[in-house]
TrEMBL record:
Subcellular location per the Swiss-Prot or TrEMBL entry: Cytoplasm; Nucleus
Domain N-acetyltransferase, first and last residues per copy: 243-324
Pfam families assigned: Acetyltransf_1
Protein name, per record: N-alpha-acetyltransferase 40
Source species of the chain: Lachancea mirantina
Gene Ontology CC: one annotated term: cytoplasm
Length: 369
C-alpha cells in the first residue's frame, strides 16, 4: 500500500500542472527579494534579515540590512557609483569617400642585418690570391657565394649554376667534421637550441645568405680540398655607440686539412687576406667564434693580433676555498670555461680600445660536470 501511495504522489508532483504551480510560487517569492536587492540564492543573506541595522540600497533606495548589503558587493557607506565617460571610438568620425584605386605592387623590404654577398665579393677577389704557393705545390682558389636563391660558384670564366657549388659545400662540411666533429656533437644543443644532429644544423648555417666562401685545393677539385674560409659583413649590436660603422666582417669558418696543418696557412690567411678584406670593406673589424677547448686556434688568433671581445663569455669561478696554516694563507679556485669565446680584431687602434675586453684570457681548469 505504501508503495502505491508513493508512486501516485510522485506522478502528481511530476505532472505539468504541479510543476507550473511550483514555478509560480518560486517567482512570487523572488520578486520582493529582487526589488530589495537581496540575493535570494545566498543563504548567508537570509540570516541577516533579523539584523536591526538597516541601510538604504544605493541604486533602488529600498532599505536592506547591512549584512545583506555586504554580501551583495556594496558597502553601506559607499557613494552612488559615478557614470562612466562616454565611449570614444579610435576610428575617425568620417571614413574617406573612396579607397585608393591601386595599392602598391610590392611593399618595401625590411632591412637585412647581413650585407649581400655581391658587395663583399669584389674585395675578396682582390685580396685572396688566385694561386697560393705551398712548397713545391700550389693551391688554386675557388669562390662560392650564398644569396637568397642558394649557392653560386664563381670561376675565372663565368658564374656557373647552383649544382656546381654543392660539391664544394659538401667537402667543406666533411672538413669541419674531421676537425671539430666531436666538439660540435657535444655543444650542438646549447649552440643551436634544438635536438637535431649537428651536421643538419651546420648544413643550414652554411647556407646563410651573404656568406662568401674561399676554397683552396689542388687542381681546383673539391675532393682535394686543403683549406677554406667563410665570412660575411653583418651588424654587431654589442659595438659601442661611438663605433662607426657598426658592422664587422664575421669570420664563420677557417679550416685547414689535417695534412696541411702546421705550415702557417691560417696565420697567412688572416694577416694577408682576411684583415685587408675587412679594411677594404670599411667595417669596424673582424669578429669570430672559437671553441674554448680548441687550443691551437686560440694560439693562432692571439698570434694574429686578435683579442677577447668585451661582450664575449668569460671564465667563471665555480668554487673558492681558503685554507690557513701557520706559515701561509692561500686560496684554491676552480675556473670553468664557457663553450666558446668571441675574438675581435679592430681595423683601427681606436676601435680596439672601445671593444676589446679588459680581462686576460687565462688558462682554465678542466671542465667539471
Amino acid at each position: 500500500m505504501r508503495r502505491q501511495v508513493r508512486a501516485a504522489w510522485m506522478r502528481a508532483c511530476m505532472s505539468p500542472a504541479c510543476r507550473a504551480a511550483r514555478a509560480l510560487r518560486a517567482l512570487r517569492a523572488c520578486l520582493p527579494r529582487a526589488a530589495a536587492g537581496v540575493c535570494f540564492a545566498d543563504r548567508r543573506a537570509r540570516a541577516c534579515r533579523s539584523s536591526p541595522v538597516r541601510v538604504q540600497h544605493p541604486h533602488t533606495g529600498v532599505p536592506v540590512c547591512a549584512g545583506a548589503a555586504k554580501e551583495n558587493g556594496f558597502s553601506p557607506c559607499r557613494e552612488r557609483p559615478r557614470r562612466l565617460p562616454p565611449f570614444r571610438s579610435a576610428f575617425p568620425a568620417q571614413l574617406p569617400a573612396q579607397l585608393p584605386a591601386q595599392l602598391p605592387a610590392q611593399l618595401p623590404a625590411c632591412p637585412m642585418p647581413n650585407a649581400p654577398a655581391s658587395t663583399l665579393l669584389p674585395h675578396a677577389l682582390a685580396h685572396f690570391p688566385p694561386e697560393l704557393p705551398l712548397g713545391s705545390d700550389s693551391l688554386l682558389r675557388t669562390v662560392v657565394t650564398i644569396d637568397q636563391h642558394g649557392p653560386t660558384l664563381h670561376s675565372p670564366a663565368h658564374a656557373t649554376h647552383r649544382a656546381d657549388a654543392e660539391p664544394w659545400l659538401a667537402s667543406a662540411l666533411d672538413l669541419v667534421a674531421a676537425n671539430l666533429g666531436s666538439t660540435y656533437a657535444r655543444v650542438s644543443r646549447q649552440l643551436y637550441g634544438n635536438n637535431r644532429a649537428w651536421r643538419a644544423n651546420k648544413r643550414d648555417e652554411m647556407r646563410t645568405p651573404g656568406l662568401v666562401y674561399v676554397f683552396y685545393s689542388q687542381m681546383a677539385s673539391p675532393s682535394a680540398l686543403a683549406l677554406f674560409l667563410s665570412f660575411l659583413v653583418t651588424d654587431e649590436p654589442d659595438l659601442a655607440p661611438e663605433t662607426v660603422p657598426p658592422q664587422v666582417l664575421y669570420l664563420y669558418e677557417i679550416h685547414v686539412a689535417p695534412r696541411h696543418q702546421g705550415r702557417g696557412l691560417g696565420l697567412r690567411m688572416l694577416s694577408q687576406c682576411v684583415f685587408p678584406t675587412a679594411r677594404a670593406s670599411r667595417v669596424a673589424g673582424v669578429e669570430l667564434t672559437v671553441f674554448s677547448n680548441n687550443q691551437p686556434a686560440l694560439r693562432l688568433y692571439q698570434r694574429a693580433g686578435m683579442r677577447l671581445a668585451a661582450w664575449s663569455p668569460q671564465d667563471r669561478v665555480v668554487s673558492a676555498q681558503r685554507r690557513r696554516t701557520r706559515a701561509m694563507q692561500y686560496a684554491q679556485e676552480a675556473r670553468v670555461r664557457p663553450d666558446y669565446y668571441l675574438f675581435f680584431w679592430g681595423c683601427s687602434p681606436d676601435t680596439d680600445r672601445v671593444v676589446i675586453g679588459t680581462g686576460p684570457l687565462t688558462r682554465a681548469e678542466p671542465r667539471q660536470a
